[in-house]
Amino acid sequence: MQIHVARNSAQLGIFSSEEIIAGLQSGRFLASDLAWRDGMPAWTPLGDWSEFRGVGVPPSPSAQPAEPLVASTIPWEQGKSIESFFATIKLAIVSPSSLSSGRYAFGDWLVFCYVGVLVALPFQLINVVAFGDKNAQLGEFLRSLNIPELSKATEKMVSAEPAPVWLTLVGLVMGLAFAPLVYAFFALLHWVGQRIFRIRVSVERTVVASLLATTTLAVVMAPLQLLGFSFAVQMALSAVVFIPACVIYYRAFGVATAVNPWAQFGIDSFVWFVLCCCCCVTPVALFAWSLAGRSGMSFGG
User: Residue 103 sits in which domain range?
Assistant: First the structure.
């Protein structure tokens, strides 16, 4: 189980027992350094941990530090309310360094993500009711490109009967209901990427940090749903906000996992590259190979 270590109220990071033993032997860690892991009621000096006394670390002079470390300064972990929710969103944007003190229990932050979904839901509903069928918008955009190969598909998209609004709304609500679980799934893939690059962060902390960062981004970007001018405008707007969105996401995600944000961005890029190769390039290559094989058989016959 991963152990959080702090000194003088500043987080040093998250480490395994083996890493802490090596650090105590090398002088990287001190007996007076405070440590905590999931299930403990309070932070405790390393010198008072029985599992670390066998490496020659004397017990600390006092079981209680002169200035006890606050377990968490994140509003959501101090109390669950709509005020603490928005205070946490603000903290993740304005002062992400404060996220290092979190306990990050999965259940708490799954609820946090669902609250974010409910906050974003009205903007999604307004977009659906006010701006109509997205397929028709996409069809009109593709038609404006005048690509002959897409003409048939474009005409079908434009002329297709739009789905009833109520059905679209039901689909939207159902999609948002499963959204936190989808976010958690992709966070698991990111954890695999971390392990590949030998970055040790627990599964729970990786998933929770992703839920925190994704929810923050979803709430901040939700009002943009009201700007449904056209598909082209939406694409241009997405391009404009892409970099700020990445900054918000990876700053929060990096601090919450105690990993450099650039490293987390690189891991994400690697994971998505692999996914694109597996889900897009490989099927297309197999399909092309299959067609080539059939053509060869026909020609030989």
Answer: 77-261
